[in-house]
Amino acid sequence: MNKLTNGAVLRSSALTVEELELAQLIVSALNLEVQAEDIDPEAQLYGEGLGLDSIDILELALAVSRAYGIKLRSDDDNNRKIFSSLRSLNQHIRQRR
Predict the structure, then answer these.
(1) Helix crossing, 17-30 with 86-96: angle to 10°?
(2) How many other CB atoms sit within 10 Å of the CB of residue 69?
(3) Is 22 helix (H, G, I), strand (E, B) or coil?
(4) What is the pTM of this model?
């Protein structure tokens, strides 16, 4: 599934080790045609930025749950914030582990 037409999302800031690990999970789980290290940790995951849709977010939530052993609920009022960027998702995971 090709999510990016230009093949990369330019980074505005450096990825931490944990963010790179999460970016690799996202790329692998969603079969994205982008290198994990090229993902901007502040770019939006949904819509603009990485270009994920609602089905992608559900698949990502499942992959995160499996990989990190945390539950991400579809009825969580904070989902918009949690999935707003790679950095935000990573922070949520680190707080729950």
Answers:
(1) 110
(2) 10
(3) helix
(4) 0.83
Quote the tokens at residue 40: 């901007």
Q: Which among 71, 63, 49 is positioned nearest to 3, based on CA atoms?
A: 49
Rounded distance, CA 75 to CA 42, Å? 24
Handedness of CA 31, 72, 41, 14 (dihedral sign): negative
The encoded tokens of residue 52 equal: 């994920």
Q: 31 with 4: CB under 8 angstroms?
A: no
Q: Would you give per-residue pLDDT tens digits along the chain (97 residues)? A: 334 434 444 445 789 999 999 999 999 999 999 999 999 999 999 888 899 999 999 999 999 999 999 999 888 899 999 999 999 999 999 999 8
Query: DSSP for 14-40?
Result: PPPHHHHHHHHHHHHHHT-SS-GGGS-
Q: 3-state class of 76 per DSSP? A: coil
